């Protein structure tokens, strides 16, 4: 089984927390750290939520690094309408923050110094942290083995506007700056086109509930708001859980990729739109 060194860049958030749980439970993963970006909730609450999840899983040794508290250019808009006021279905209201006294740039730099071309960076929130790293140290991101991103939408309806997916919509300038980088390692983009098919069905959720184990109970509890949101917003039963797909696909490849050039619209009605041009 392939061993993966990973760093997760998260805005936890319900599905980010599920992705983190999956990464911790998957034995071939060595999690070098979790960086936090403002997105679903602000980075302070995100760091508290990551602390809660990692402590719940007895993973006190995994460093949490707090990053950008707002988008590069435009005002910050959270997604508490989807994730709850606390980002975890209004069930946890985590209060402890054990993020370390380091910034994202120096954390990434020391990680790639130690393990050049060996780390998978999984970016599951707005790309603000990655863009700031690229601005401060062009070329640093190319020292990762690969970058896998949940973001964007190509042929289906967006979740913030007809063409806008939340992560790119929240900080379109960061996404644009990221994709403008000349020097990137292999980069994989998981758009809503594919993550929409990752549905936690009512049956599966009920099965999780019936397991009556603490972790299963936790997953059941923090998905409640998501379920209610999906019902209210689109009359769907169950909930779409985008972010864990990136972790699952690294674990057990199941998504097919096509080479493409991506640009991002930064303003107007098309804010956050990912324009995908396939390449031969
Ligand atoms: C993405 O936005 C967030 O709400 C989710 O955590 C996911 O990363 C889906 O558009
Ligand atoms: Ca996310």
Write a structural description.
One of its GO terms (molecular function) is purine nucleosidase activity. Helix 1 packs parallel to helix 2 and helix 9 (202-210) runs antiparallel to helix 10 (214-222). This protein is an alpha/beta fold and 280 residues long. The protein has helices spanning 14-25, 43-56, 80-83, 104-114, 128-136, 166-170, 172-180, 192-195, 202-210, 214-222, 224-234, 244-251; strands at 4-10, 29-36, 64-66, 119-123, 146-150, 187-190, 199-200, 239-240, 260-264, 274-278. It has 2 domains: 4-198 and 241-278, Alpha-Beta Complex (Inosine-uridine Nucleoside N-ribohydrolase, Chain A), CATH 3.90.245.10; 199-239, no CATH class.
Structural class: alpha/beta
Approximate helicity band: 25-40%
**Main CATH class of the largest domain:** Alpha Beta
Q: Termini, distance in Å?
A: 32 Å
Mean pLDDT: 96
User: Which regions contain 5 or more consecutive residues with pLDDT less than 50?
Assistant: none
Query: How many beta-strand elements?
Result: 10
Q: What sort of overall outline do the alpha carbons produce when their principal axes are compared?
A: globular
- Ligands, deduplicated: beta-D-ribofuranose, calcium ion
CATH H-level homologous superfamily name of the largest domain: Ribonucleoside hydrolase-like
How many independent structural domains?
2
Strand content: 15-25%
Q: Rg to the nearest angstrom?
A: 17 Å
Keywords: Glycosidase, Hydrolase
GO cellular component, one term: cytosol
Protein name: Inosine/uridine-preferring nucleoside hydrolase domain-containing protein
GO molecular function: purine nucleosidase activity
């Amino acid at each position: 089984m392939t061993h993966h060194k990973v760093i997760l860049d998260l805005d936890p958030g319900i599905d980010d927390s599920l992705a983190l749980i999956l990464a911790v439970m998957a034995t071939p993963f060595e999690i070098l750290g979790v960086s936090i970006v403002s997105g679903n909730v602000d980075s302070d609450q995100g760091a508290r939520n990551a602390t809660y999840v990692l402590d719940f899983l007895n993973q006190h040794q995994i460093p949490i690094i707090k990053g950008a508290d707002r988008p590069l250019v435009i005002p910050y808009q959270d997604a508490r309408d989807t994730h709850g006021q606390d980002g975890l279905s209004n069930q946890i209201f985590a209060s402890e923050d054990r993020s370390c006294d380091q910034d994202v740039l120096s954390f990434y730099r020391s990680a790639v110094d130690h393990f050049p071309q060996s780390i998978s960076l999984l970016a599951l929130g707005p790309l603000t942290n990655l863009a700031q790293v690229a601005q401060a140290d062009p070329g640093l991101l190319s020292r990762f083995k690969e970058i896998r991103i949940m973001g964007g939408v190509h042929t289906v309806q967006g979740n913030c506007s007809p063409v806008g997916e939340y992560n790119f919509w929240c900080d379109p300038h960061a996404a644009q700056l990221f994709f403008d980088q000349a020097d990137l390692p292999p980069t994989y983009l998981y758009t809503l086109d594919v993550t929409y098919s990752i549905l936690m069905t009512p049956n599966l959720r009920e099965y999780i509930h019936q397991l009556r184990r603490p972790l299963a109970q936790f997953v059941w509890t923090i998905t409640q708001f998501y379920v209610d949101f999906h019902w209210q917003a689109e009359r769907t039963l169950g909930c779409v859980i985008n972010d864990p797909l990136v972790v699952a696909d690294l674990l057990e490849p199941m998504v097919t990729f096509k080479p493409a050039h991506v640009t991002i619209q930064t303003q107007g009605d098309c804010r956050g739109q990912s324009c995908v041009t396939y390449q031969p």
